[in-house]
Amino acid sequence: MSNANANRRVFVYSFLCFQRMEKEVAMILKKLVEFLDGNKVQYVVISHSPAFTAQDVAHSAHIPGKELAKVVIVWMDGAMGMAVLPASHMINFSLLKDVSGATNVELANESDFKDRFPDCEVGAMPPFGNLFNMRVFVSAGLSDDKEIAFNAGSHRELVKMSYADYERLAQPKVAPFTFKKKTQEEESEPELP
Fold first, then answer.
1. Would residue 75 count as lying in a domain?
2. How is residue 73 annotated by DSSP?
């Protein structure tokens, strides 16, 4: 086989793989892209290696954990809600309960909400609860960022956009209900007297 034929086959294979990947992304992002484009928002789609935890996504995409918004689905007095917080933070459920005015707030199981986001991979929902008829609560820590990035429906793509545009479109309740989780290094350091 000549080099020209080998190169042509590699090109065709690469093109077909790219088209398949592009269709998968388009299917996952369609509702979100239409929403962002319809509101004339500037954003960037970032592809990265598959990652399933928020910290792994941040690392894979080379984005600081405080700028990656992760979505946590919670039950609030029997209704599903969306908590959006930096990847490097965790929810203080007592504070979220106070902020939401709910008497009971608890973490939802993936089986509770997987059908609520039919075009998204489980755990990769974008932080626009308004697209899914859910209340949205955003950690005050995210509002300090000029830009945020978040899962765009898959474990391989992120959307990065200005925080101001995100807040304008999602219309979340912004409040302090999170705390920064300790890194392994911080956990292994001895406490000083």
1. yes
2. E
pTM tops 0.90, yes or no = no
Alpha-carbon distance 130 to 93, whole Å?
Answer: 22
Contact 162, 147 (CB under 8 A): yes
Nearest to 44 by CA among 61, 59, 24: 61
Listed ranges 21-25, 55-59, 128-132; the one with the highest mean pLDDT: 128-132
Q: Give the DSSP letter of residue 132.
A: G
Domain span at residue 127? 5-182
Compute the distance between CA of residue 26 and CA of residue 75 in angstroms, rounded to an integer.
Answer: 30
| Closest by Cα among 71, 76, 44 to 127 | 71
CATH number at residue 39: 3.90.960.10
pLDDT of residue 1: 57
Q: Output the pLDDT for position 53.
A: 77
